[in-house]
Design brief:
7 helices, mainly alpha, globular, single chain
Length: about 120
């Protein structure tokens, strides 16, 4: 576990500190105490399953722009929809099956719904 994840206070300090990108700081500045707890809890799983912490922070740029209910799903979705990377290079091998079982049906349903709405295909 990353040292900054050990307590909410250390998590806040890291997310609002100079190591975090500005878009993370902007997102975090508007969090109340309850949402800090939720974000701390939500952030722990993607941090555990991603191979590259820098890439996790990179994709947060798009995720944090909109409300989300499940940060792990949003991270999985961003990774799955990234054509220039293999999922195996971004998600730890022991997590791929876990996340696929949990989220692949939802992802397939989203893709199916989009293709039905598309008038060009």
């Amino acid at each position: 576990m990353k040292e900054y994840m050990t307590t909410i206070e250390s998590f806040k300090a890291y997310m609002l500190g100079s190591s975090s990108p500005n878009y993370v700081k902007r997102y975090c500045q508007q969090l109340n105490a309850e949402r800090w707890k939720l974000f701390h809890n939500d952030f722990s799983e993607p941090l555990e399953f991603m191979c590259d912490e820098d890439y996790l922070f990179f994709i947060l740029k798009w995720i944090l722009k909109y409300p989300f209910e499940d940060l792990s799903f949003e991270v999985y979705l961003q990774v799955a929809m990234t054509p220039d990377h293999d999922i195996e290079s971004l998600i730890k091998p022991e997590w791929i099956d876990v996340l696929d079982k949990r989220y692949k049906p939802v992802l397939n349903e989203l893709i199916s719904g989009l293709s039905k709405e598309c008038k060009c295909c």
